[in-house]
């Protein structure tokens, strides 16, 4: 079917890249001027001038006969990314600097210095797992580069990780590459979403992951380099680059290490988070989850707080988002230990707190917006469409249908399970809320196994 | 387990792969591994043949759901109707962004809507 695709000048490279990735590099694409379109698009009258300017070009793109190359394009060739590279310098430091320059020029690095991934260092890294270097974990979006144990190990070396971290990194990659994880969104979206990486179980302490004061900050090699190894693995195996096909408008606020931390299971009043996800107590796991940037609640060291007050603030924040996407909200709530203990003392279990949040964040039917931006009309229409096409799970649909009427209360998530409650932070501490517009397709917990250098993770 | 190990060790190990290229030149070579994954190339396809003009054609305008795309396509529809009165315009919005995983089922339905399509506005 003949067609033409409109994009904007800022996204032309992205569009070309995606067309090539999907095997149709010749798709006719017109780029509207970004500096004019994003302002003018707010109403039909203002955008009229841009339509007029591109009309003839569009007609021509729809009707001009194809060139031979457009009819039968050259077949894409396999790019071989397996050969080692030799870099020469006047001494080691010079050679190392040249490796860094080469890698950054090739879009193989993140802008910070890397450890040169020599075969010897990669072999040492691979010794951290029982798994074969040639084992394939999966294909990494958006370009579907093949992730093998060896390729992840190379990126782990570059990140400065230790061999004993490799099983954690591999389990996290398995989460990202799970068929239920929409990796393309988090590695490409304009929203600058960032993975949250949560390590649970005895391996967290054994590897010295920080779960206390400063758990999202610097100073702990495990937190920093496991996150960075994942960032480099996604960058290199999926082949993304800013302004080409990673279009996060601000860039991620945790661009180099993601939000990587451990749950403080020792101070948590509840069972470990991974047990709530179906794992056995004592198992080591890693959870990966796409998220927006966190919001902070509580008083920390400078203001009084109560546990109920923290929860009330979080409820208000979620209810005040201004949109109800019950098929598409997921929240990770990181409570600092004192707050979690206070809540437990009030009688909350993790489950009852999830259910409380589910109840309290519901919005009255009368507050549903009359217009939304996705084309379905009102929020009520949007919710009904979500039920019809399965975005709201069939086993939860009746709850929404029963409440889509005056006096009804509409949940903002599909179920209490969409509130993921984790305990970490200092004493005193703050509490964090990570929100993501996707319930089911960007959250996975995987068991850490195959470890050779730690007591846990077998 | 101690936290502070051991960047100098990692760097020193790299020296194991330094080869003295020649005493006179006093150069060293560093062998490193490629961090990228092999990508199975997709089968490359041509685009659909086209020709003639838009008179009498059924043109499908696909709103990709991004903010403002409907204004752009509405204005485009008006202009198409004005310049090609014999053409038929069909508005056929793409399903909401949150149904990404179902889109492979949706794309084939576009062909049933008309003869040509215009898709926008991508970001």
Outline the structure in words.
The complex is a heterodimer of chains A (458) and B (123). Chain A is α/β, with parallel strands linked by helices and 458 residues long. Helices cover 37% and strands 16% of the residues of chain A. Chain A has 3 domains: 5-71, no CATH class; 109-361 and 417-447, no CATH class; 363-410, no CATH class. Chain A has helices at residues 12-21, 34-40, 44-63, 68-71, 92-105, 119-126, 149-159, 166-176, 183-188, 202-206, 221-238, 273-276, 307-319, 337-345, 350-360, 379-388, 394-403, and strands at residues 3-8, 29-32, 85-89, 136-140, 145-148, 194-200, 259-262, 285-291, 295-297, 330-335, 363-364, 409-410, 419-423, 431-436, 443-447. In chain A, helix 7 packs across helix 8 (166-176) and helix 8 crosses helix 11. Chain B is an alpha/beta fold and 123 residues long. Chain B is built from 3 helices and 5 strands; from the N terminus they run H-E-E-E-H-E-H-E. Mean pLDDT of chain B is 81; it is low at 1-5 and 7-24. At the A-B interface, strand 1, helix 3, strand 3, helix 5 and helix 6 of A face helix 1, strand 2, helix 2 and strand 5 of B.
């Amino acid at each position: 079917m003949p067609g033409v695709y409109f994009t904007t000048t800022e996204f032309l490279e992205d569009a070309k890249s995606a067309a090539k990735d999907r095997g149709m590099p010749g798709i006719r694409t017109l780029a509207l001027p970004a500096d004019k379109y994003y302002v003018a698009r707010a109403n039909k009258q203002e955008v009229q001038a841009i339509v007029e300017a591109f009309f003839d070009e569009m007609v021509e793109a729809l009707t001009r006969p194809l060139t031979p190359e457009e009819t039968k394009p050259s077949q894409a060739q396999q790019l071989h990314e397996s050969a080692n590279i030799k870099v020469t310098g006047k001494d080691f430091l010079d050679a190392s600097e040249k490796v860094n320059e080469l890698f950054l020029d090739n879009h193989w690095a993140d802008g910070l210095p890397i450890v040169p991934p020599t075969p010897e260092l990669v072999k040492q890294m691979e010794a951290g797992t029982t798994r074969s270097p040639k084992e394939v974990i999966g294909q990494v979006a958006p370009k579907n580069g093949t992730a093998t144990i060896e390729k992840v190990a190379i990126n782990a070396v570059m990140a400065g990780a230790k061999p004993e971290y490799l099983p954690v990194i591999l389990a996290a990659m398995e989460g990202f590459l799970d068929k239920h994880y929409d990796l393309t969104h988090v590695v490409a979206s304009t929203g600058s979403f960032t993975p949250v990486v949560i390590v649970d179980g005895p391996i967290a302490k054994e590897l010295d992951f920080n779960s206390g004061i400063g758990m999202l900050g610097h100073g702990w090699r495990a937190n920093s380099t496991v996150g960075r190894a994942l960032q480099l693995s996604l960058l290199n195996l999926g082949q993304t680059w800013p302004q080409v096909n990673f279009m996060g408008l601000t860039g991620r606020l945790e661009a180099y290490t993601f939000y990587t931390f451990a749950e403080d299971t020792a101070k948590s009043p509840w069972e470990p988070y991974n047990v709530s996800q179906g794992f056995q107590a004592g198992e080591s796991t890693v959870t990966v989850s796409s998220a927006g940037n966190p919001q902070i609640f509580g008083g920390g060291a400078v203001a009084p707080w109560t546990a109920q007050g923290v929860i009330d603030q979080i409820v208000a924040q979620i209810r005040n988002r201004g949109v109800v996407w019950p098929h598409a909200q997921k929240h990770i709530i990181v409570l600092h230990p004192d707050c979690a203990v206070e809540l437990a003392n009030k009688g909350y279990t993790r489950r009852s707190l999830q259910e409380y949040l589910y109840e309290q964040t519901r919005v009255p039917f009368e507050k549903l917006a009359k217009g939304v931006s996705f084309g379905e009309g009102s929020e009520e229409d949007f919710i009904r469409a979500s039920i019809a096409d399965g975005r709201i799970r069939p086993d939860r649909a009746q709850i929404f249908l029963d409440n889509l009427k005056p006096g009804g209360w509409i949940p903002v998530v599909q179920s209490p399970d969409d509130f993921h409650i984790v305990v970490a932070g200092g004493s005193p501490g703050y509490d964090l809320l990570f929100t993501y517009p996707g319930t089911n397709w960007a959250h996975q917990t995987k068991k850490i196994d195959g470890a050779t250098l730690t007591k846990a993770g077998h | 387990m101690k936290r502070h190990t051991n960047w100098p060790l990692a760097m020193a190990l790299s020296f194991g792969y330094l080869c003295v290229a020649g005493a006179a030149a006093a150069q060293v070579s560093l062998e490193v591994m490629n961090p990228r994954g092999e990508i199975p190339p997709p089968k490359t396809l041509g685009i659909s043949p086209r020709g003639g003009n838009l008179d009498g054609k059924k043109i499908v305008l696909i709103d990709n759901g991004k903010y403002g795309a409907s204004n752009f396509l509405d204005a485009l529809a008006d202009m198409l109707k004005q310049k090609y009165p014999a053409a038929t315009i069909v508005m056929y919005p793409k399903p909401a962004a949150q149904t990404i995983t179902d889109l492979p089922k949706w794309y084939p339905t576009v062909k049933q809507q008309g003869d040509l399509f215009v898709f926008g506005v991508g970001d």
